[in-house]
Specification:
Helix content is 49%, strand content 0%. With 310 residues, it is mainly alpha-helical. Among the domains are: 160-230, Alpha Horseshoe (Serine Threonine Protein Phosphatase 5, Tetratricopeptide repeat), CATH 1.25.40.10; 249-310, no CATH class. Helix 6 (199-211) runs antiparallel to helix 7 (215-228), helix 6 runs parallel beside helix 8 and helix 8 (233-245) packs antiparallel against helix 9 (249-262). The protein is elongated, with a radius of gyration of 55 Å. The protein starts with a helix and ends with a helix.
């Protein structure tokens, strides 16, 4: 009996040794053979499970939304099972709001509009800014190609007897002061014959034509005078007066602006330009021009402005 028991014990022990060796050899093929039991199982039913390793990051378990009035169970984390959270109120049991996507429906059940594409920075058009209105106080820059006036002749007149021309001009002005414009015209014309290079004789002829009611005849001598002296503010202003008398408003404005370009804020040119606007039935422009002269200290235009207030 003892021998049989010894043989049985040895056979059982040898079988276990052979089984363990075979399992060790087959661990590459059957990994489950080499897996050790859990520490909690080996330690016994009363032992506690070892704590999970702390990597410095707190990982919370995602909460599953449950129907109203029911408990919401938390998924177990890496360190073991966590306690289930029970919601007592309906608000605590609702799921958190999700971020809507481009194709998700909004509260009204309609699809959200697609996002507006942004234009590259270089393709954005700048805002359109309205150009400021030209000031009636300042003459616009003059360009030869835009002139409405007849061409000014290039005067190549030889100088004559300047003293005789000067005496004739003085005599013509005396006739003009006496309102005898026929005799004044004759003396101005004689001055141009005495000294063809003196622009004052041509300017006097044009002015006398205007006083005689013949503004259309005044254009030619005035342009001849401007050919001799293109920087004469007086000749440009008188040319504007002749065009204004002819109701040629565009050329009159250009002539007045040329005078104001030579003599900015010239009192006589501003006064004549304002009077012309008043004749054109544009009282706002007339008052604006007179206001410019009044602000510059011209008392005559201040009185003109006060007399034409609405």
């Amino acid at each position: 009996m003892v021998v049989i028991r010894s043989l049985d014990s040895c056979s059982w022990r040898g079988f276990r040794i052979l089984a363990l060796a075979a399992c060790a050899l087959a661990s590459g093929i059957f990994p489950g053979c080499s897996k050790r039991p859990e520490a909690a199982t080996e330690a016994g039913p009363g032992a506690t499970a070892p704590a999970a390793p702390d990597y410095g990051v707190s990982i919370g378990a995602p909460t599953l939304a449950a129907p109203e009035g029911q408990a919401t169970a938390a998924l177990p984390g890496a360190g073991g099972a966590q306690a289930a959270a029970v919601s007592a109120t309906p608000a605590a049991a609702t799921a958190t709001a999700s971020i809507p996507t481009a194709t998700s429906a909004n509260a009204t059940g309609q699809a959200s509009p697609p996002p507006v594409p942004l234009a590259p920075p270089g393709l954005i058009a700048p805002p359109v800014v309205a150009a400021a209105a030209p000031s009636p106080c300042v003459a616009p820059p003059f360009r030869e190609g835009d002139s409405l006036l007849p061409p000014i002749p290039v005067a190549q007149l030889t100088a004559g007897n300047r003293d005789a021309a000067q005496d004739l001009i003085v005599e013509a002005r005396r006739y003009g002061d006496a309102d005898n414009w026929s005799m004044a015209f004759d003396r101005y014309r004689a001055a141009t014959l005495a000294d063809p290079s003196d622009p004052r004789g041509y300017g006097g002829m044009g002015y006398a034509y205007g006083k005689l009611g013949r503004p259309q005849d005044a254009i030619a001598p005035l342009l001849t005078g401007l050919g001799l002296d293109p920087r004469s503010e007086l000749l440009w202003r008188r040319l504007g007066d002749m065009y204004a008398d002819m109701r040629d408003w565009d050329r009159a404005i250009e002539a007045y602006d040329r005078a104001l370009e030579i003599l900015p804020m010239g009192e006589a040119a501003l006064l004549a330009k304002g009077d012309m606007y008043w004749e054109m039935r544009q009282p706002e422009l007339a008052r604006a021009v007179w206001q410019c002269g009044c602000d510059a200290g011209a008392n005559l235009m201040c009185r003109r402005l006060d007399a034409h207030q609405p």
